Amino acid sequence: MQSNMYSLENEYLTIAIHSKGAELQRVFGRKDQVEYMWSGDPAFWSKHSPVLFPIVGALKADTYYFNEKAYQLGRHGFARDMDFAVTAQSNDRIVFTLESNAETLFKYPFAFRFDISYELFQSSIRVTYRVSNSGKSILYFSVGGHPAFRVPLTAGTTYSDYYLEFNQRERAGRWPIAKEGLIESRPVELLNDTNRLPLTKELFQKDALVFKGLLSNSVSMKSGKTKHGLRLDFTGFPYLGIWAAKDADFVCIEPWCGIADSVDADQQLAIKEGIHSLQPAKNFERTWSVTFF
Asked: Please, which residues have CB within 8 angstroms of residue 132's CB and are 6 or more apart in sequence?
């Protein structure tokens, strides 16, 4: 299947999505001529907004067990590296579809259909993940987003001029990530009765900030030095990752229905933290959205 770029446009936004990984690669604010997405500079990180499926994060030794058999999957699964088919398209909405095949069944023995839709609504993008069990046994999976936004957004501002603002005051620790990409067994204090997290390059020197069970269901990126920013709504996603590559000019705000293995995980897929189980012929659907201003 040939990979292609597709675009949607309305009065407010122009967006571009690549069929490889169904990856959102550009969001351009038409009124004020603002580029909101990370450029994908390979000197830092060549991705823009990879889709995480059928796992989120890393597995212990890149291995899981199902029905007493070992399988190998790399970090964040395989969907981000596969070509999706476009199965629906209109002026303001496009749907990309990936179905299980011989390649996926070798490392992930489940029949599935995975649809990702992107829909424009004024200055917002709605991203919907729909997982369908097309097999005859229970489907086990996780799914998540990994969008990277430019920081700074406008000339005359710097990275540290920006901050993240949660819509609730939080008392939440970050769950540290070990060298192998696994989640440590105890959180470290970070948000102490506050809704604001200043952005600094030093914040990500020890990998991503991982949160579980936040009170908030949205987080905004703002600055006191520009009117431009964004708000990401993640209702229905119990985990949130915030990350940037070392010294790179972006921040990822990542809504997750799933999480990396913990350092003491037993590697059994059916009881993995953050795993979802789906009966045959049933569907699972979650939507996150981002509004640009």
From this structure: 112, 113, 114, 115, 282, 283, 284
**Model pTM score:** 0.96
| pLDDT score for 179 | 84
DSSP codes joined into one string, 148-207: EEESS-STT--GGGEEEEEEEEEEEEE--B-TTSPBPSS-EEEEEEEEEEE--GGGGTTS
Amino acid code (one letter) for 89: Q
Residue 173 has pLDDT above 80, yes or no: yes
DSSP reduced 3-state for 61 = helix
State the number of CA atoms in the 13 A half-sphere of 281 facing the CB. 1
Number of folded domains that form the chain: 1
What the block records as the tokens of 281 is: 């012929």
Over pLDDT 70: what percentage of the chain? 99
DSSP calls for 202-232 = GGGTTS-EEEES-S-SEEEEEETTEEEEEEE
Q: pLDDT averaged over the chain?
A: 97
pLDDT band at 206 (very low <50, low <70, confident <90, very high): confident
Q: How far apart are CA 72 and CA 281, in angstroms?
A: 26
For residue 3, pLDDT over 90 is answered with no
Q: What mean pLDDT do residues 49-76 have?
A: 98
Question: Tokens representing 159?
Answer: 């990275």
What integer pLDDT is reported at residue 1 of this predicted model?
Answer: 65
Instruction: Check if the beta carbon of residue 222 is closer than 8 Å to that of residue 189.
Output: no
Longest dimension (CA), the chain: 57
DSSP label at 103? H
- Quick one: which of 76, 19, 61 has its CA closest to 243? 76
CATH code at 176?
A: 2.70.98.10
Do 21 and 6 touch, CB atoms closer than 8 A?
no
